[in-house]
Structures
1.
Amino acid sequence: MSQSRIEWTDSTWNPVTGCTKASSGCLHCYAEAMTRRLKAMGVAKYANGFEVTVHEESLSEPLKWRKPRNIFVCSMSDLFHKDVPFEFVDDVINTIVKTPQHRYQILTKRAERMAEYFSTRQVPENVWLGVTVDVVQSKSRIDYLRKIEGAGIKFLSCEPLLEDLGELNLKGIDWVIVGGESGNQARPMKREWAVSIKQQCDSAGNTFFFKQWGTWGADGIKRSKGKNGKQLDGEVFHSFPD
């Protein structure tokens, strides 16, 4: 586990590493690029590169963290990838149950498999469940998330936001994160796409979090993500659900 620079979490925990591309948002996967660097540096955990690998030795890491924090589970993978056995997911959940002082944020692009898993298991009280919705085609993931019973918080990550998502059914959704893509090959996000989601969140009473513009600014100019900043129409929206 490590401290995270991701604005909507405090720490990351990676009992699984490696993944495969599931949608257009995966095209320039930051985790894949980071894995290549870590493998080249000789970090043992990433010796298999971006091949899906479970790490039993990492299961106990959160037990060492006493101070409560938000923990993003599998920032370098997807817990519900088909190559991660449900038995190992059980082990991950067991660690979560043993550490009720933390809040665990589980985000997946495999919403159908997540729904299958929790159809026969209870969602721990300290788990937030989310799905990535980056293009219109991925909106169906919201329905799978909505049907899961027991999650204290359900959220959407619209990052990287690659097109206008149109109307969103936000019933049963608590939190929506929006952000643009970063990196030399990043695709631009348009202001009106983000504003549309913000307006829908306001109307539905959902909490809205604008993470960043990424490599392309609100003015359509490519520059460093630091210079493009985190403001949407002059304001910073870094709100968390209760």
2.
Amino acid sequence: MKRIAVTTENGMIFQHFGKTAYFTIVEAEGETVISSRVVDTNGNGHSALGGFLKDAGVDTLICGGIGQGARDVLSEAGIAIVSGAQGSVEAAVAAYLKGELIDSPLGACDHHDHEHGHDCGEHDHCH
């Protein structure tokens, strides 16, 4: 059984891991989704989200953009990362379970280098 977390906003993949307010937590067996629920992060930010996901028993994260610091925290927690995802949560989970969705270097986002304080979701290179 896999437990997958997906950064979520209105059924779509939220593009900035560290600012996500909700995760869809999916339990799957093979290519079949057994259960799916949306959980509130309760305002947890970058550093606390790794612990939040580990406590939820998540083994894989599907997200849009994610910085190296968050990648490090999740890796230390034993959580696999599939970044660079876009579109609906449902479609991304289905593609992942079929082996069609893999981690993308485009999902890496160093928002500290961005100008004007924009979020990662506003730049083409972070999608």
3.
Amino acid sequence: MRVEKLTAAHLCEVAELEKACFADPWSEKALELLISDGAYGAVCLVDGRVVAYGGVLWAPDEGQITNIATHPAARRQGFGAVVLEHLIDVARSRACEQLSLEARVSNLPAIALYERYGFLRMGLRRGFYKHPTEDAYVMCLQLCNTKK
């Protein structure tokens, strides 16, 4: 297993992963955002195949995690955690003060993962997700007060 920066060569596989994980998947074209200057994407590879990925959009001193997804057949094996750790490390290296994200209120495994890494529930976005419509927790990690 290894984690590396998302490149154009990974986009097709990541788009397929999106389709396997989400009712409203990002298209390959939309995923190109994560290889642009204002963003960062990471992939977790096992035997050369993408099993998980994550992305973050940058603002001057903070990051917004867009998605973290693990292939359904590879869940509960720590791949999502490895991607999350990598994104946190990259954010620290950029001197970001905070990372934020939204999580479906019903996605208890994801919420538990984020809380294990120090993310706190800071608010609720009503009707944020579609297919099905569901609220989202806004979760934040203060990087200046966390320890690796």
4.
Amino acid sequence: MMDIYSASNTELIRMIGRRFKTYRIRCRLTQQELAEQTGVSVPTIRCFENGRTTNVSLQVLLSLMRAVGQLEQIALLLPELPVNPKDVFEKKNEPKRVRHGK
């Protein structure tokens, strides 16, 4: 397994593409069937799976993950932060945004 923090974004995207191919095959979907199901072109799927493209949009990635039954994994990308007990005790509200002074 690669050290994800030392890997470049390009390397990580390529790794995801290779893994996705394994999921697609395990779901017994051809690239053509996947393309028809998701509206993503076969060349885009092929390039993603073979690591030749690193600019797959989030919308495309979500469509592909939905097609192979892995959409719930998106929740693991940024899990909800646990509530800080101190904040509950002091009844502090989470900031809505961060604004720095001029």
